[in-house]
Specification:
The protein is built from 15 helices and 15 strands. By secondary structure, the chain is an alpha/beta fold. It has a 7-stranded parallel beta sheet with strand order 3-2-1-4-5-7-8, with helices on both faces. It has a 6-stranded parallel beta sheet with strand order 11-10-9-12-14-15, with helices on both faces. The protein is globular. The chain starts with a strand and ends with a helix.
Length: about 375
């Protein structure tokens, strides 16, 4: 198959990690794959630019108002590449994919959606407008793929797409994300945490959906009972929001036990450096990459009952209600008391059996084949 995967930019994020993994595994399986981005740069840009099997194309968008020239470049590249399928990741890519359908009606278009129960009141006019257009234009898609059952339910209510939304869980690269004692030791040296500390981590952009303030409040509750606990909050965000998180941690007295190292290009090192991973999301989560990656590294997880997180952890973690710092703190204490020796191997086994990159590729191939052969 000739497949073009489209995304806004290859920033450091779950969708970006997934699209690069999918591009590589589809190319390894013998398909002709192009990965197209609107903007240059991003954490995964060098990796994909130098990949020998995946054709990488940037549309070199100059900024928000670079519209006419950008669209000309977009249509030119599509006519040159002539993919059988254009598969968009996230809202803007989906809008562009629908627009491309008017120029190349023979090309199949797939919308990729990766969230659930998004509270748009927390976001600005632009995002609300894009979301509304995406819902309307979904009727022109040949297929919609969600990465979670929660996402399928959510978009089924919103989209004008009138057929079954297919669900393909994210694929975790278990060759990259695996238990590694050397990485654990090295990471704790960087953080200046000892082997006796019980470290709880969270990773993700500072965003209303991620529940970072809830995590900080839970940390303040937990350290009162257990002074051995330490915390790492990984991720970037608007300066104003980061300042609020830092002010909150200082106000609650956990500033000396919680570090914010920004972003990390060695996420496997981050996971190996912690003892428990936490997803504190309040809404919007589909399939949490970070939960799957942590589990692949043998790290048990405490997650909120948002999106497909309860399904991902199965019997290998603890699920609590969103927005409840007391419940988070109690779950951490439970794992601390029972230890992680048993949970760790079970976590990795669950990921390898259910959420591998191979599974993601095979399920994607099945959907693409159905679309190209006219099956719904």
């Amino acid at each position: 198959m000739k497949i073009c995967l489209l995304i806004y930019r290859l920033d450091l994020g779950g969708a970006q990690r997934q699209i690069t993994a999918l591009a590589k595994t589809l190319a390894d399986a013998g398909h002709e794959v192009c990965l197209m981005t609107c903007y240059d740069g991003g954490a995964f840009f060098p990796e994909m630019q130098n990949d020998e099997k995946v054709r990488y194309v940037s549309l070199h968008k100059k900024g928000r108002w670079d519209i006419a020239a950008f669209l000309w470049r977009f249509f030119y590249q599509l006519r040159r590449l002539r993919p059988e399928v254009l598969y968009g990741f996230l809202s803007l890519a989906n809008l562009l994919s629908a627009l491309a359908k008017t120029v190349m009606p023979q090309m199949k278009v797939i919308f990729g959606v990766r969230a659930s129960n998004v509270n748009l009141k927390n976001y600005g006019f632009t995002l609300r407008t894009v979301s509304g257009l995406e819902c309307f234009l979904s009727q022109f898609a040949d297929a919609v793929i969600a990465n979670s059952e929660a996402g399928k339910t959510y978009y089924k209510k919103l989209f004008s797409f009138d057929r079954e939304i297919r669900v393909i869980p994210n694929g975790i690269d278990t060759d990259v994300f695996k238990p590694d004692r050397e990485k654990r030791i090295a990471q704790r040296v960087v953080w200046d945490y000892s082997g006796d500390h019980f470290v709880i981590g969270i990773a993700g952009r500072v965003d209303p959906m991620k529940g970072i303030p809830v995590f900080v409040r839970a940390a303040a509750i937990a350290v009162k009972k257990n002074p051995q606990l330490r915390f790492v909050c990984l991720g970037e965000g608007p300066e104003k929001d980061i300042a609020e998180i830092e002010a909150l941690s200082g106000e609650l007295g956990v500033g000396d036990r919680l570090i914010r190292p920004g972003v990390s290009r060695d996420m496997a090192g981050f996971y190996n450096g912690i003892d428990v991973y936490t997803s504190a999301s309040i809404f919007g989560e589909g399939f949490s990459n970070t939960v799957g990656e942590a589990m692949a590294c043998g790290v048990p997880c405490v997650v909120t009952n948002v999106g497909d997180s309860p399904y991902i952890v199965g019997d290998c973690g603890i699920v609590v209600s969103p927005g409840d710092p007391e419940a988070l703190a109690a779950a951490w204490e439970e794992i601390y008391k029972r230890g992680t020796e048993t949970d760790g191997p079970l976590c990795r086994k669950r990921v390898m059996e259910n959420f591998s990159v191979r599974h993601m590729r095979e399920q994607t191939e099945a959907v693409l084949t159905d679309v190209l052969e006219g099956r719904r």
